[in-house]
């Protein structure tokens, strides 16, 4: 009889891609295995998955959040060790790092994609106002001033209502240029740097300067509001994650371009956040482990990478084999990997595992800084204090 | 103040016509008693007068003004409900005082009036109780008290004494009569009690199946009923009706009141056998099965010993018989 | 009561207040329904205007109809809601009757015990409930949902109904007892019909969270065969992309059945019993 | 005097209680009790270890937890106060108006006013975010119509307003519940009593205050305690409108959201069922306290009237 | 079947003692009437017998078995409540039929009994109505019908006829008497109506303030009341009580019933002035203010014309006066 594999996922967005492209491609090659992609709402996913795993009714394949969320599942024995899975060799250690034990000995999810931060802009608007794509901060703010002075467009589409925009598209987007990407991130984990250090406070200071360029009432502006504001052509610049590409392509009626976070002076090394975001693992309690492993091996293959990356422009393959992408905007984003240094979000590895949670606090504080309710210094201090309360580097 | 005119009032509940055109005039200060069989529309008529029920057609005029659009509160009435309708959450005292308080009567005056009413109704020991803690008769008295304290120009009483014992009933009846004299208010009073009707009324209105059968003074109704219905309804035990043909009379029906028959062991008009004797103490009711007149009731003053089966002769008092035509009307 | 008991200014005042509040109550809802018939650009560029030929778009409804078997989801929702409602009302009323009618030792404690359930979100018990369902093989059946919702609805039902049952006249129940009615007949034939208005109220309160619940369908019965409407609609809530057209359409559609159920139940309220039994 | 015969065991009480108690115990109480007892344990190396009241000490002693807890509690109290002051009086008012005899369109009003209550939180959250959003301009536009545009602020995004705004949205959504309950209670007042009041000259407002209100007091007690319980358990509206972090800056955090984050975790924060259970226990105790006050102090003192 | 013994039953509501030790034996098939002033505990006693109210102490024995622990449904009784307690949501027919249905009586039999009861109570036109659509008297009849159809061994009637008109009351009273004969059931009947009490009862129990004053046959109570209270309570208008000292008698009080006084314009025992005359048709009540005897009532058979202010002489019938001691007891 056929084996049916259920995939647990928070990516309801991808339902049609799985149904129409990925699953048929897999099933064609692997007769006898049926795959069902069963997503749940992203906000419920972790809680629902946790309950199902605990009770033993979860699906065979589990989409993995990066770092501690999945590590925790692995520690509990919910995720199977995939270190020996055929196909894992297709990924670099950096790609696998998000789904490994701290000592790097066991891998438990097959990496699927990463996302890159930067800014997407309305090319038509830039052309109309005669603005060049900014590469330095001064140019960036000059451009914002010009747009603001003109008044046709809201300079920058971002709101603080949903909090995470401020942190992810704000702080984590522009931050690596200040803390020098991996260098700063590693130093923070080792305890050699503090969040109150200049290079960590500076991104907050820049964020605080964004406020005048955001739309009226940005405090109550939600993430979909921001998306709509930009795609309906009412805003000129959108602090983005690469995942927006697919949606923006279908929705925006104007030409778009992208630029990486501007550096201080022309010629400085640029850093980008190229964040490992999504993987897929095997439910340790699965009754169809063999079939599931077959599937995972396929996910690790370049075949999958090509289909996935092209179907979801902006979710970049982590596979070592180069993937050819059609989408120009996606190509633009991925091209930054060559000229800038990549790093992942500073709060994810190790630092995101305690209470108070550094990532969540960064959301709140980034929004507070933009809203003007906290100074950059105060925000940084709160974050560091929170971290100090549980994180003792070196121990 | 207190006059009432009812003009051709009709009331139907869906298809059921309950009042079929009532015309009535009550002058100021009059005491009018409504009597009639159960379900004939007495309560409904009171409710129409009070403004609790819309009449289907016709007008109600109080003090010369058509009150169809006047809410009950503005009609200057007080009503004692057949179902009492006490406020379950208020003590006896507050049940009585609420209306006055609402009207802004000074507290001292309220207390005074409640004092009078409760002593008149022997309710003093219960002033602090709630309705649920009262006996049936006590509740009924509270309902009376609630109407009485308001001293309105028009009282509507719906069987206010039905649950009181004889002594209390006589007392309360006298108190109501006195109240009537003192306040000079108009009173409309529904009762099933003949004694109440006869003693209290200036004018009795006999209702039957939604129609007025006769209006008149108590003794007028007793002495000259307009028709068979009124003749039978007023007086208890009720009038004996005898088929005229059997007595060789021209009238369809001959009526004799039980109290207008005398009995004799030896001779008399109608020979009959005693079927049953009811001993009420002050009087005795004999049920006789007469050859000529059929089953008749005879009321005798005092104690009268008669064994069932005994033969007796009953004789109507001369001039005290009534004659009714085929249409039920009294033949003069 | 008669016409004369109503005063015109008061009636106008009442209508004015009610109308104002009706507008407040309906405006957001109409906004949602209106916008469900518009294109995305239409929704966000002119949320206030009704669909114009330019902005009219059934894309939301098309997506909903095309995505999954919504008729079937509706059916599931309906079965679950109605069945749970039935049990909540039946069991709840029975327990409420026991608590309000009889004095027995531990009466108040039992009342408190049955009320505990409204004090902790049942979500917290998810794992144990799921384990129970896995053990009894009820995962992915509507029965599992019905059981959970029955348990979830009971505390509130008992709480409210026992209060209302205390208002049923003792004389009436006693008349029944003297008539030789068993306690069960008294409950079913006398008390239940008399508390019908509050039963309707409880039915409405119970129904809404059940119909709108997302969590337990997701956990206990996520399979295609047992999906409920709300769970079906959440497909359109993505991580970064929310298909507002589809969400609005799905939810507008989902309003209808509850609204109909509500109207049915609230009629029971009006047909409530007029007094007149007790003198 | 001879001893009275003993009353036979009243089986029917058991029969009436059994189904509810069984279903409820098996599916609600046991799982929840199982969860609450986690508050006495801590997960150490994937083992649940009994630690007594240590979690509670953490909750109240460690500012990382206690600050959030007190903040949530404070917000929750405010949330509750708004409901009591706005939702219930308006609900009673609407019910009183609706129950006036022979009111035309009563069924329409009743249904219309109840519609928000039957909506799912997703719709409520969406609709109000849309209305209050400064971008799409519904609220500013409407306020412009009445000349109040200058008063507009992005309420949901401002720390000082967000909680109140959300409370009012919640009031908007749930007003149908007090309305329905009070309406049902008002309908059960015997008509004759109202008629007697009409005759007594007690009409309109004073009829409401002096006759109807005392008679529906038990129902008002019920809605108060239900509001209390509902508010201290509230979660969904805040969660859908403001997210699990209950922004801005935790200003809309209430016990429900606080508990959710702790129990199930959020984003990178991993759920901690033990601390979550400790918080849930505290919530439970708060609500239980309220309910006990009601059951033992208020309810026993409320007079009920049988109709 | 149907015998009842009440042994030293006491009942208190909180501090208020309502029944103060009632002892009563009712043999099978007896018709017992309870009378007494409003609030004296009649309804409470009935409710204790029915098992609706627990007595504070004492026992109730039905058919030889202590029923303290027997629920009302098992006591084999039917009761007519003073408050009716109809089922508001059921039609008249179902109100009457519910108990039978519960007992598993076949539908045809139920219909038959409802038919009999409703024709006996003239309720046929209303069988499909609900209580709210009935008049007060109709409701009361439904309450009677509901008890009657069940044909139990023990009936408890709490003022069942209070809201019926005179004619219907007489009819229904006769029907109840017939029912009593037909079923040979024991009946306990509370009433305020003297006629009902006198005509229906095998035995009248006079209650006062929670105590039994006297038990006896109707004429026994009328002729030989045990004390002043009973003497005053039985008979209407009530007995005249005259201060013995004023008449030069040794007894504290002398009692004469109004119907045992004759009047004469010229001579007699007590000279008095007419204060008020009540014309009831069949009789006339005169209120005389006598020099010697104070204010007294005289009841005269038939119509008697007497203007207020006229002087009349009243004379007690020989041998029809009662003498009461200082403790209120009758002196033989
Ligand atoms: N629940 C109660 N609490 C306190 N007192 C009560 C309660 N119920 C009745 N009583 C009192 O007990 C006494 C006897 O009441 P009961 O109803 O037996 O009188 P009754 O003889 O039937 O009078 P009636 O002829 O007026 O119906 C009354 O004085 C009444 O006020
Ligand atoms: N709501 C109603 N719907 C239908 N019929 C009704 C309604 N109310 C009263 N009736 C009928 O109207 C008639 C008159 O009722 P009403 O209460 O006026 O009688 P009544 O003269 O007061 O009788 P009673 O002496 O028995 O109190 C009755 O036959 C009754 O059945
Ligand atoms: Mg009547
Ligand atoms: Mg009584």
Tertiary shape of chain D = flat
Q: What Rg of chain A do the Cα atoms give?
A: 21 Å
Through-space gap between termini of chain D: 38 Å
Largest sheet of chain D: 2 strands, antiparallel
- Extended strand count of chain A: 10
Distance between the termini of chain A: 52 Å
Element order, helices and strands of chain D?
Answer: HEEHHHHHHHHHHHEEH
Provide the structure class of chain A: alpha/beta
Structural class of chain D: mainly alpha
Share in β-strands of chain A: 15-25%
The pLDDT mean of chain A sits at 90
Number of strands of chain D: 4
Tell me the helix content of chain A.
Answer: 40-55%
Morphology call of chain A: globular
Largest interface pair: C-D, 112 and 103 residues
Low-confidence runs of at least 5 consecutive residues of chain D: none
Main sheet makeup of chain A: 10 strands, mixed
Low-pLDDT sequence parts of chain A? none
Family (chain D): Belongs to the binding-protein-dependent transport system permease family.
Subcellular location (chain D): Cell membrane
Pfam family, one (chain D): BPD_transp_1
Membrane topology (chain D): Multi-pass membrane protein
Task: Give a description of the structure.
The complex is a heteropentamer, with 1 copy of chain A (395 residues), 2 copies of chain B (332 residues), 1 copy of chain C (279 residues) and 1 copy of chain D (307 residues). Chain A is of the alpha/beta class and 395 residues long. Helix content of chain A is 45%, strand content 16%. In chain A, strand 1, helix 1 and strand 2 form a beta-alpha-beta unit. The termini of chain A are far apart. The radius of gyration of chain C is 23 Å and the shape is flat. The C terminus of chain C is likely disordered. With 307 residues, chain D is mainly α. Chain D has 13 helices and 4 strands. In chain D, the strands form 2 sheets. Chain D has a two-stranded antiparallel ribbon. A two-stranded antiparallel ribbon of chain D has the order 3-4. In chain D, a hairpin with a 2-residue loop joins strand 3 and strand 4. The longest helix of chain D is centred in the N-terminal third of the chain and has 36 residues. Chains C and D meet through helix 1, helix 4, helix 5, helix 6 and helix 7 of C and helix 1, helix 3, helix 4, helix 5 and helix 8 of D. The complex binds adenosine-5'-triphosphate (2 copies) and magnesium ion (2 copies). One magnesium ion binds next to helix 1 of chain E.
């Amino acid at each position: 009889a056929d084996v049916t594999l259920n995939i647990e996922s928070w990516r309801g967005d991808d339902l049609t891609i799985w149904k129409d492209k990925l699953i048929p491609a897999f099933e064609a090659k692997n007769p006898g295995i049926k795959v069902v992609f069963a997503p749940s709402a992203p906000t419920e996913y972790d809680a629902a998955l946790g309950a199902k795993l605990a009770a033993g009714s979860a699906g065979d394949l589990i989409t993995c959040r990066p770092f501690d969320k999945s590590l925790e599942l692995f520690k509990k024995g919910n995720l199977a060790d995939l270190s020996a899975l055929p196909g894992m060799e297709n990924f670099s250690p950096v790609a696998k790092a998000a789904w490994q034990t701290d000592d790097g000995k066991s891998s438990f999810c097959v990496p699927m994609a990463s996302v890159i931060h930067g800014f997407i802009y309305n090319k038509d608007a830039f052309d109309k106002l005669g603005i060049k794509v900014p590469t330095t901060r001064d140019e960036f703010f000059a451009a914002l001033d010009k747009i603001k002075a003109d008044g046709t467009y809201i300079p920058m589409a971002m709101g603080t209502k949903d909090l995470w925009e401020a942190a992810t598209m704000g702080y984590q987007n522009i931050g690596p240029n200040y803390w020098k990407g991996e260098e700063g991130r590693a130093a923070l984990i080792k305890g050699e740097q503090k969040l109150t250090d200049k290079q960590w406070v500076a991104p907050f200071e820049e964020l605080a300067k964004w406020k005048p360029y955001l739309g009226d009432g940005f405090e109550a502006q939600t993430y979909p509001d921001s998306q709509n504001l930009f795609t309906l052509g009412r805003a000129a610049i959108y602090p983005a994650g690469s995942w927006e590409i697919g949606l923006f392509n279908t929705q925006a009626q104007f030409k778009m371009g992208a630029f990486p976070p501007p550096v201080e002076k022309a010629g400085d090394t640029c850093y980008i956040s190229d964040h490992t975001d999504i993987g897929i693992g095997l439910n340790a309690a699965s009754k169809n482990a063999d079939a599931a492993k077959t599937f995972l091996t396929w996910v690790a293959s370049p075949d999958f990478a090509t289909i996935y990356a092209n179907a979801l422009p902006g979710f970049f393959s982590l596979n070592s084999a180069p993937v050819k992408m059609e989408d120009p905007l996606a190509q633009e984003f991925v091209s930054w990997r060559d000229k800038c240094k990549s790093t992942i979000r500073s709060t994810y590895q190790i630092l995101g595992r305690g209470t108070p949670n550094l990532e969540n606090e960064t959301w709140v504080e980034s929004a507070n800084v933009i809203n003007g309710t906290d100074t950059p210094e105060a925000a940084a201090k709160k974050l560091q204090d929170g971290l100090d309360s549980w994180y003792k580097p070196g121990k | 103040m207190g006059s009432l005119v009812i003009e051709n009032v009709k009331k139907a509940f869906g298809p059921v016509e309950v009042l079929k055109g009532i015309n009535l005039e009550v002058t100021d200060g009059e005491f009018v008693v409504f009597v009639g069989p159960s379900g004939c529309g007495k309560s409904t008529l009171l409710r129409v007068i009070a403004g609790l029920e819309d009449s289907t057609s016709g007008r109600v005029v109080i003090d010369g003004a058509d009150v169809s659009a006047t809410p009950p509160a503005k009609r200057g009435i007080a009503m004692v409900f057949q179902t009492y309708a006490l406020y379950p959450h208020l003590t006896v005292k507050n049940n009585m005082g609420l209306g006055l308080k609402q009207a802004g009567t000074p507290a001292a005056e309220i207390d005074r009036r409640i004092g009078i009413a409760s002593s008149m109704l022997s309710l003093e020991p219960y002033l602090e109780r709630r309705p649920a803690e009262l006996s049936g008769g006590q509740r009924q008295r509270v309902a009376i008290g609630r109407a009485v304290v308001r001293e309105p120009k028009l009282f509507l009483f719906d069987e206010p004494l039905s649950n009181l014992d004889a002594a209390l009933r006589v007392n309360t009846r006298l108190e109501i009569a006195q109240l009537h004299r003192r306040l000079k208010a108009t009173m409309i009073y529904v009762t099933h009690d003949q004694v109440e009707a006869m003693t209290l009324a200036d004018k009795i209105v006999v209702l039957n199946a939604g129609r007025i059968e006769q209006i008149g003074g108590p003794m007028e109704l007793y002495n000259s009923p307009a028709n068979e219905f009124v003749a039978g309804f007023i007086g208890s035990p009720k009038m004996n009706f005898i088929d005229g043909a059997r007595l060789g009379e021209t009238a369809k029906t001959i009526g004799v009141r039980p109290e207008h028959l005398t009995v004799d062991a030896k001779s008399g008009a109608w020979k009959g056998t005693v079927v049953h004797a009811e001993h009420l103490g002050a009087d005795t009711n004999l049920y006789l099965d007469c050859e000529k007149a059929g089953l008749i009731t005879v009321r005798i003053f005092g104690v009268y010993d008669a064994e069932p089966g005994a033969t007796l002769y009953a004789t109507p008092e001369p001039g005290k018989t009534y004659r009714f035509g085929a249409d039920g009307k009294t033949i003069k | 009561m008669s016409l004369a008991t109503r005063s015109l200014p008061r009636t106008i005042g009442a209508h004015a207040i009610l109308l104002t509040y009706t507008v407040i109550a309906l405006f957001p809802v109409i906004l949602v329904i209106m916008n469900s018939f518009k294109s995305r650009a239409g929704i966000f560029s002119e949320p206030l205007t009704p669909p114009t030929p330019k902005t009219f778009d059934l894309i939301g409804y098309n997506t909903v109809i095309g995505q999954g078997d919504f008729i079937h989801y509706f059916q599931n929702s309906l079965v679950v809601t109605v069945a749970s409602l039935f049990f909540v009302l039946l069991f709840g009323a029975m327990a409420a009757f026991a608590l309000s009618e009889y004095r027995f030792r531990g009466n108040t404690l039992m009342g408190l015990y049955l009320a505990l359930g409204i004090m902790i979100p049942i979500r917290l018990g998810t794992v144990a409930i799921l384990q129970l369902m896995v053990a009894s093989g009820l995962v992915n059946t509507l029965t599992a949902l019905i059981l959970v919702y029955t348990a979830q609805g009971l505390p509130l039902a008992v709480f409210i109904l026992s209060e209302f049952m205390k208002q049923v006249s003792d004389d009436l129940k006693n008349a029944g007892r003297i008539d030789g009615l068993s306690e069960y007949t008294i409950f079913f034939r006398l008390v239940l019909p008399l508390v019908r208005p509050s039963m309707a109220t409880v039915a409405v309160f119970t129904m809404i969270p059940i119909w709108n619940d997302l969590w337990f369908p997701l956990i206990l019965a996520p399979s295609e065969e047992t999906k409920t409407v709300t769970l079906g609609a959440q497909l359109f809530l993505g991580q970064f992309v929310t298909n507002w057209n589809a969400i609005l359409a799905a939810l507008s559609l989902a309003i209808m059945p509850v609204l109909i159920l509500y109207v049915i139940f609230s009629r029971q309220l009006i047909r409530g019993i007029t007094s007149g039994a007790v003198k | 005097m001879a001893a009275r015969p003993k009353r036979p065991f009243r089986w029917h009480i058991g029969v009436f209680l059994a189904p509810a108690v069984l279903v409820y115990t098996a599916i609600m109480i046991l799982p929840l009790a199982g969860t609450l007892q986690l508050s006495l344990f801590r997960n150490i190396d994937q083992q649940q270890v009994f630690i007594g009241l240590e979690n509670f000490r953490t909750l109240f002693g460690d500012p990382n937890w206690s600050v959030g807890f007190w903040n949530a509690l404070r917000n929750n109290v405010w949330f509750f106060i708004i409901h009591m002051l706005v939702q219930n009086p308006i609900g009673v008012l609407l019910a009183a108006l609706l129950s006036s005899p022979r009111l035309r369109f009563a069924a329409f009003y009743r249904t219309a006013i109840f519609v928000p209550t039957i909506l799912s939180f997703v719709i409520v959250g969406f609709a109000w975010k849309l209305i209050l959003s400064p971008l799409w301009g519904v609220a500013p536009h409407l306020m412009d119509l009445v000349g109040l545009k200058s008063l507009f602020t992005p309420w949901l995004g401002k720390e000082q307003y967000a909680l109140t705004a959300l409370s009012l949205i919640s009031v908007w959504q749930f007003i149908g519940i007090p309305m329905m309950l009070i309406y049902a209670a008002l309908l059960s007042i015997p008509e004759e009593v109202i008629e007697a009041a009409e005759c007594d000259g007690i009409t309109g407002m004073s009829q409401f205050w002096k006759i109807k209100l005392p008679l529906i007091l038990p129902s008002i007690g019920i809605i108060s305690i239900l509001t209390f319980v509902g508010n201290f358990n509230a979660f969904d509206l805040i969660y859908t409108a403001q997210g699990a972090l209950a922004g801005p800056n935790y200003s809309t955090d209430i016990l429900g959201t606080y508990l959710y984050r702790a129990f199930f975790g959020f984003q990178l924060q991993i759920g901690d069922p033990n601390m979550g259970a400790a918080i849930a226990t505290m919530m439970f105790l708060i609500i239980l306290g309220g309910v006990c006050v009601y059951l033992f102090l208020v309810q026993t003192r409320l007079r009920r009237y049988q109709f």
